[in-house]
Every structure is written in C-alpha cells, then in structure tokens.
Design goal:
Layout (H helix, E strand, L loop, with lengths): L1 H7 L9 H14 L4 E6 L3 H13 L2 E6 L16 H17 L2 E4 L2 H8 L6 E3 L18 E6 L9 H13 L1 H6 E6 L4 H9 L6 E5 L3 H10 L2 E5 L13 H6 L5 E4 L5 H8 L3 E4 L4 H16 L15 H12 L1
Helix pairs in contact: 2-3, 3-4, 6-12
C-alpha cells in the first residue's frame, strides 16, 4: 500500500482533486474577478491546481508551503521508484518557478528552495492566538510537562538519563519532581522511563481537551518541547512552540543541531534549547530551574512575542497579497 501511495498517486493521494477543481475554479475566478490565489500544502496537489490555473488564466499565484515537499521527513519512506522520485522533483521545481511568490514556515526551507527557484521567498511561521484561559493554581510539585504525542521517534534518552541521575543524587529533587505527560505516549517511551526508574514519578493524563491542555501548560512549572533528532526535522517549527512561548512558563527544548525553532526560544527568552549530545548542560539547567522553584522564583521573562501573534503574521501575508 505504501508503494501504491508513493508511486501511483503523485504528489499525494489528493491528486484526483486537481482536474475537477481547476474546472470549477476557472469559472469561479472569472465570474468573481479574483486577482490572486494562494495554494497551501501539503497536500501538494493543491499546488498543482495553482499551476494549471496559472497556465490557463495567468493569475497572480502565491504558493504557501507549511511543510517542505521532497525533503519532508516521510518522503524517503514512500518506496519511490527512480521515475516517481524524478517526477516529484520535476513537479516541485515547476511549481516553485511558475508561481509569483513563495511562502515557507522556516529559514531552512527558504534556503532549500532558493537552490531551486529565483522567485521571492518569504518566511511566515505559524503563530499564537490570544486565548483567555481559566487559571488553575500552579502545580505544587516541580512538574516537567510534555503536551502532545510522545511517540517512539521522540524518545529523549538524555532527558531521562539526566532526570534519573538527579532523582538518585538529590533526595529533595526526588520528593518534588513529577513528569507530567499529556497525550499519547508510546510503549518505547514508557519502557525507557521504566529502564531509568522514573515510572513512579510519571503523571500520565492521556488525552485532554484543547482548553485543558492550555490550562495544564500554564500551571506546570516547566514545559518540555521535544523534536526528533534528525536533519529532516531541522526545518520543523512545531505549532506547540507558539502556545508554549505565551504560557509564561520556562521551556526546555530538545532537537537536532541547527533546528530553526531553537532561535525562536532564544530570541523570545522563553527557555533553553539543547541538542541530543548536551546531557551535562541539560542536567545542570534542570538543577538551576529546580533551585529557582524552591525559592519560588521560577518564572519566564519573555520578550518580543508580538511578532509571532497570528494578527501580526496575517499583516505580513496581507503585504504579499497587495
């Protein structure tokens, strides 16, 4: 089935949308005097709709890539034949050179696309909404909270090692520490927590509503942001980053070297980023946060968040459309 998906449905399983969508949209665009269209992918079939409309109507066309095309993490798992891989590359290049403007979500993707096209490329990241969240009292424990799926590929062994050592070395830390997990957690992660003798410190809340997740973010002492340790994920800026930076809680972020989201954590002063080979530095930072917790001084001091509000990001998009 994976071979069928990768080789017969190019660029993706929504490719059958293209022909009927173009037929409908040509009429709609003409009747309503539409001047600019924006196609957003994945699915990248949407960009093929834009490509055909550009060819037939010569309309102003902006392509919006929320994820890369041929370098997205799962692309090399599609069992592509040589001809299918070449077709993906050809379509990607054709789209990037036929459109009038390209939008991407990260500097790494911009750099990647600049090697393919001379069309202007703008970075417009995801962002945060201003949401009213009912306040809960802060956790009495020194809670490190991960909100979202924690699957096998996101199994941060250096974090478990650091926490295990702190628990065994510091009785006070062991008395206060709690690992709060919200969302799906893989068996591999649970096995690792047992291996490092941390299962007694885990509070797994499972799935909760969006509102509850926001409440738990804001009453936790520290937030964990974990990305897969792979070159393919350098360009990934999780939407969770933006919820986290406005939560007013310090962030511990783990990811690959040169991860784009690391600069956001740094420039907003909302926490610290660590690669997967910085265990001792990570352990020291957790100790510093714990000492601040004991002194009731554990806070986040964010700066420059406004540029990541969805209102500000929409203003950037409006400038491109004009």
């Amino acid at each position: 089935m994976l071979w069928v998906r990768g080789n017969l449905f190019i660029p993706d399983a929504r490719v059958l949308w293209v022909k009927p969508s173009v037929t409908f949209l040509k009429k709609y665009i003409s009747e309503n005097n539409i001047e600019t269209i924006i196609t957003t992918g994945p699915p990248h079939s949407l960009h093929l709709i834009g490509l055909k409309l550009k060819k037939e109507l010569n309309i102003n066309w902006i392509t919006d890539f929320r994820d890369p095309w041929t370098t997205i993490g799962y692309h090399n798992k599609l069992k592509l034949s040589n001809s299918a891989a070449k077709k993906h590359k050809r379509l990607e290049k054709e789209v990037l050179n036929a459109c009038d403007e390209v939008i991407v979500t990260s500097p790494t993707t911009k750099k990647e696309f600049q090697a393919i096209t001379f069309q202007p490329i703008s970075v417009i990241t995801n962002g945060y909404d201003v949401e009213r969240v009912e306040k809960k009292p802060m956790d009495e424990k020194f809670t490190l909270a991960h909100i979202g799926s924690l699957l096998s590929e996101r199994n941060p062994l250096i974090l478990w090692q650091s926490l295990s050592e702190l628990v065994s070395e510091d009785e006070n830390f062991a008395n206060f520490f709690q690992l709060k997990l919200i969302g799906a957690v893989s068996e591999d992660v649970l096995d690792s927590l047992k291996q490092y003798k941390l299962e007694a410190f885990v509070n797994h809340l499972g799935y909760v509503s969006h509102e509850e997740a926001l409440q738990e973010q804001r009453c936790s002492q520290v937030l964990l942001l974990i990305e897969i340790n792979s070159k393919d994920t350098q360009c990934i800026i999780p939407g969770k980053v933006f919820e986290y930076i406005v939560s007013e809680r310090p962030i511990i972020a783990l990811g690959p070297e040169n991860a784009d989201f690391a600069s956001i954590i740094q420039e907003t002063n909302t926490g610290k980023f660590f690669t997967y080979n910085e265990k001792e530095v990570l352990k020291k930072y957790i100790s510093e946060l714990f000492e601040a917790f004991l002194k009731q001084e554990l806070k986040s001091y964010p700066v420059g968040l406004q540029k990541y509000s969805r209102k500000a990001l929409t203003e950037e998009l409006v400038k491109l459309i004009k």
